[in-house]
């Protein structure tokens, strides 16, 4: 596993670095919910990205925990753990990595680090869902022995955490 990949809790300073990484190296639809209007990183979409993370992770009552992903100290993406409603002990994992860093083992390292974080916070299961077209997530999960199965329009998988 790559040793230059690290996770750091999102804070306001890192949010600016994360916005920069997203604008430079990712498509808005890969990293945030859709925002109506012209495509690309418009001023409105940049503000929505910041508001999205502020409300979900930096508010007084955060709904999920977000980490910035750094490679040799440089922010290249984000990973999150969000408690699943009505399933105590289960968190949903989500990850995006800047295009120029994909396919080089960053995702595999992030997955291991994210599972460690979930375990350390007392969770016993991590849930993943993606689209059938997302070969990278399928390969990532296969790499830890978790097969994704169809659930409606999505592919889903559960990783049991052992201490
Ligand atoms: C999904 C994502 C996080 C994977 O991260 P990554 O750094 O590219 O993954 P890695 O380089 O560690 O590769 C993990 C495995 O996926 C495979 N893989 C990577 N990109 C792939 C692609 N585009 N198509 C098929 N397989 C791919 C690698 O070969 C590797 O498989 P292996 O272990 O059998 O060799 C990254 O592609 C990404 O950020 N995508 C955009 C956002 C996204 O789709 N997020 C997930 C939403 S559920």
From TrEMBL:
Pfam families from the UniProt entry: Acetyltransf_1
Annotated Gene3D superfamilies: 3.40.630.30
Record-annotated N-acetyltransferase domain positions: 5-163
Keywords, in A-Z order: Acyltransferase, Transferase
Spans traversing the lipid bilayer: none
Protein name: N-acetyltransferase domain-containing protein
